[in-house]
Every structure is written in structure tokens, then in C-alpha cells.
Amino acid sequence: MTATLRVVIDQASAQSFSDQATAGLETARALIRMAPDGCDVAAIVPGGEADLTTLVPGLSGVRVASLARRELLAAWQLGVAPSIGGGFIHSTTLAAPLVRHDRVNDGDQSVVTLWDLRAWEAASEVARTAVTWNRGMLKRAVKHADAIVVPTFAHAARLDEEWSFGDRVRVVAGAAPSGFREPTDADARARDLVLPERYVVTDATTAPSDGLGKALAAVSGQAGDDLAVLIIGVPADQEAAVRELASAAGVPERHLQVRPELDAADRAVVLARSELLISTLTRTAWPWRVVEALALGVPVVALDTPAHREVIADGGVLAEERDLADAVAEVLADTERYGVLSDDRGRAYSWDSSAERIWQLHAEL
Length: 365
Description:
The chain is α/β, with parallel strands linked by helices. About 40% of the residues lie in helices and about 15% in strands.
């Protein structure tokens, strides 16, 4: 008899630079690759989503919900699970049919994933409807989820402080996209992106509450006039504010480049050709760009936070805010050595190893 793990993939049609959409697809593919004997993987998707048979080869089946994504997520928030059924359900986000079920007698399981706590720690940066939905779904998870997956022990500690999950919390790390490296057309992409000769990268998705200004101040005045700062992930309506922030931090306009969210191939080019990545993320969130930099062997400088300490370990330089500029200078003086450390640490993360832990979790349940 075959045991089927049914994976909820609610963002298959999302743009390619959506981290959680990518994580959902990567998780499903890895679960198929790592499936134990006698097990297979099926998918649950909202109505109108992309055809998963090409995005995720090897699925044993796809259950398409009767509702489109917006309506389905609203129904699940209310505890309504139309035409979904039971069995082993694993969601790569909080989106899941979290309803009363009998794990002991019927063998039904519901597991969800929480990548960040933006809806709680930075609610002003998130649409009000998204804040309400995330908070509502976490309440449902407290009542009905058999386990909740988080990417770091720092996340687990935060959940333990605020919510009553007890021993239902499991830590399963994320990873960079499979095959994350410079593409064959990297030179052409670099020209199209108008990349500077020498630059450091920081990520605007950590700003403003997470301190983009701290990263900019740490770079200001470093290494003479030939080092630029490239900020990625800047929404068009925030570009002016980001430029003002850079100016206030002492970064001249001629040394500043601002880019929107980029797809994986462009991100790989931007990161691989940089001197280093600076992360000032302080929220409880999986540091996607940091893990991508590690995967490429790009030196990393980050604020010393529980999540960074756990994810980066000895693969980069961790510093308090007051020491961030010194840390940047230290790494710039020996990028080759810190690149080797980064590359070594990057090998710790893969979707296959994450999938193994997910299969183990469902076996334990």
C-alpha cells in the first residue's frame, strides 16, 4: 500500500522572485526525489493555478480545489475545507485546511510552515489583509496543526514565547534555489543590469524597520572611491525613500545603485560578482539572500542576531551594529578567505536534506 504525502502549493503562479513560491516548488520536487519506498507525493493547489505537471515532475496526482486562491485562502481562514479530503497534508506555508481531524484513528495529518513573523513584528510593512490572514491562520495552527515547521531554532524559541505549540514545533532549514549559480548568459545579464566594477550588496527587504541604513552606513567611505553599493529588492514606490536613506548614511549618489526584486538568475549574477553581502535583518525571518550568498561562496557580513548566528555560524562575520563598518573593512581586506568560509557553510543547506527531515517528521507523526 502506497502512502501519499499531499503537499499544498498555493503560489505556483507567483512570479519567479517570490521566495516562498520558490520554496514551495523546491520542497515538492525534493520530497519526490527523497521519497521513501512505498511513498509518493501528490499536490493540492487552488483553482486556476499553473500546471504543476511541468513545474514539479513526478507527482502522483494533483487535487485542484474548487475555489481560486483568494477564495480558498479565505475559506481556510474560516475553517472551511471544500473538496480537499484528508490524509497526510504538508503545506509549505500557513495555507492549509486546518480543521478538526483524527490523526490517531483516521491517520490524517496537517503540517504547516512559517518562514517569518513579519505579520507580527513588522505589521506596518504588510498589507492589512495579509496581517489578518496570517494571524488568523496561526491561531488555527495552534488548534489544529499536528506540527508547525520553522526554518531556525530562533524561530522555534520565538514561537515558544508567544504561542502554545509545545513539542509540535520542528526545525527544517530552507536553501538556495536548486542549481543556484551564474547562468550561461551571465555576462549579458551583467551588462543589462549595468553592474559597477566593484560593489557590495544589501537587501532592501530588510528595510526600513530592519535597518537598511545600518548597512549603508557600514559601507560609506569604505575602500576609496571605487566601491559602490547595490541595493536589491526595492519596490518602485520606495526607491526615492531608499535613495534618501543612502544619502543620509553618507553614500554618494554616484556610488549607489538601486534595483527592484530580481529573478533567481539575475540575483545569482549580482551576488556572484559582488565583493560581499551585508545583511542587517533583525526580524524573525529566514535570511534568503544570506543563504544564496553562502551557496555562491560570497563573503557575508551580518548583524549578530540569533537567526544569523545559527544560519551563518563560522561562514561569515557577525558584528554588533557599532562594529559593522569594521567588519565590512575586515572582509574587504581578505575576500578570498571569507569566500572560502562562505562556500563551506553553504554546503550545509539543500532542499534534499530538508525533504528528508520532512519525511521523518511525518513518519514520527
